[in-house]
Amino acid sequence: MVSDRRKFLLWSAVATLAIIVVGAAGLFVLRSQEPELPVYGSLPNLALVDQDGYSFSLAETRGKVVVLSLIYTHCPDICPLITGKVQAIQARLKAAGLGEAVVFLTVTFDPERDTPPVLRRYAQSFQVDLSNWRFLTGPPDAIEGLTDLLGFYTERTYVTDRPAAAGSAEVRAETPYFITHSDRFFVIDRKGQIRASLPGSRTDIDQAVRIIRRLVAET
User: Fold this and answer.
1) Which residues are paired to 135 by β-bridges?
2) Are 47 and 28 within one domain?
3) Do 210 and 127 belong to one domain?
4) Same domain for 109 and 93
5) Number of structural domains, the chain?
């Protein structure tokens, strides 16, 4: 009876070990079958200006993963939602100890109105953590080149018979307008390569964090 019991325990241990090994192998196969993130192009070395008026080149982000969003501060709907999504991603990554590996950039596609002080007020209104997040503006032709590269659509709609968007004093009364635009933001790897285009205000936070973690882990 003792011998049979020992045999039973031995076979149970072997069976348990086999299940663990097979499970681990299966997990490895699933991970190895996960498709590579494509490369959509490279981020240009644009010279821009941040919310504090300091010069900032996109080349400064090399060596870090970048979460790049595009907004305009007079946006009445999508842009605040995009900013909120990016904030949630920033908080998740910071809690995971990845704050030093990722930088967040928000570029305005309305540089005529979105001066550095306007961008700073926008960031403050959302209580943005600026420790690794910069809001950027720059020459209209440079920003247009960036939106073209990213395939990010923008189109102005002028409204001449009512006050400026959001009642902003920054907009001259004779040229108020709204901007119709894409609802997306982008993830760039350490080499400056564009690796993911996410659905902006509809982005799944868990999916975004997984993508960013993968790029942080890439060598």
Assistant:
1) 106
2) no
3) yes
4) yes
5) 2
Ordered per-residue pLDDT tens for the chain, 219 residues = 445 545 444 454 444 444 444 444 443 433 445 688 999 999 999 999 999 999 999 999 999 999 999 999 999 999 999 999 999 999 999 999 999 999 999 999 999 999 999 999 999 999 999 999 999 999 999 999 999 999 999 999 988 655 444 444 444 445 589 999 999 999 999 999 999 999 999 999 999 999 999 999 997
Domain range for 95:
41-217
For residues 6 and 66, membership in a common domain is answered with: no
164 and 195, same domain (yes or no): yes
Query: 90 and 132: one domain?
Result: yes
- Select from 55, 41, 82 the least CA-distant residue to 195: 41
Give the closest residue to 72 by CA, choosing from 150, 175, 143. 143
Instruction: Let me know whether 150 and 69 are in one domain.
Output: yes
* CATH number of the domain residue 52 falls in: 3.40.30.10
DSSP string across the chain: -HHHHHHHHHHHHHHHHHHHHHHHHHHHHHHHTSPPPP--EE----EEEETTS-EEEGGGGTTSEEEEEEE-TT-SSHHHHHHHHHHHHHHHHHHTT-TTTEEEEEEES-TTT--HHHHHHHHHHTT--TTSEEEEE--HHHHHHHHHHHT--EEEEE--SSPPGGG-TTS-TT--EEEEE---EEEE-TTSEEEEEE-GGG--HHHHHHHHHHHHH--
Q: 176 with 152, same domain?
A: yes
